[in-house]
Amino acid sequence: MSETARNLRENIVLVGFMGSGKSSIGRSIAKRLGYRFLDSDQVVIERAGRPIAQIFAEEGEEKFRDLETSALASLREVERCVIATGGGAVLREQNRRLLRELGFVACLKASEEVIFKRVSRTNKRPLLRTENPRETLHQLLTARQAAYEETAQFTLDTTEMTQPEAAETIMEEARRAFMWNRAV
Fold first, then answer.
1. Most buried residue, 31, 61, 68, 127, by CB count within 10 Å?
2. Which residues pair with 13 in a beta bridge?
């Protein structure tokens, strides 16, 4: 099935760095549209039967990325869903293709300061369990930026937006994309 035909199922896929608002804004969009909300990290957890931090600790990031790719592939047939991805889902070319096949891809971003403030509220971020989490965050954000941009059809800076404003903006852009796809 072509990418255009897949997008007609009207899924909305959210990518972006941890703390950019994918899950909270995704839930808001799903509720407003009457769509199902799916979190790819949660799919990994359910399929692996253990938390992501445990997967990282016991088997490493590469194994987690394999599980993430498998989880994304398992979503190929979903329809009318808002899918929030893990922050590193775009690291593999295969995943970038999968994400574009799943639906309209919006990238959420925020200032580094806001992201650090958001992710510092919890210690559930295995990649930030370092001696200098702020520097690690900066390095990861910088390294991933091009992959986010390559994957997304639309990018939204959520730094100074409310959740409802961000949700509405993404829904407007998705509607435009879906209407364009129908006209093709």
1. 68
2. 83, 105
pLDDT beyond 60 at 3: no
What is the tens place of the pLDDT at every residue in 116-161?
888 876 666 655 676 777 888 899 999 999 999 999 999 999 999 9
Q: Which pairs count as long-range contacts for 139-143, CB under 8 Å and 24+ apart, including other chains? A: 140/17, 140/87, 141/17, 141/112, 141/115
- List of long-range contacts for 121-125, beta carbons under 8 Å, 24+ apart: 124/52, 124/53, 125/18
The CA-to-CA distance between both ends of the chain, in Å, stands at 15
Cα 50 from Cα 32, distance rounded (Å): 31
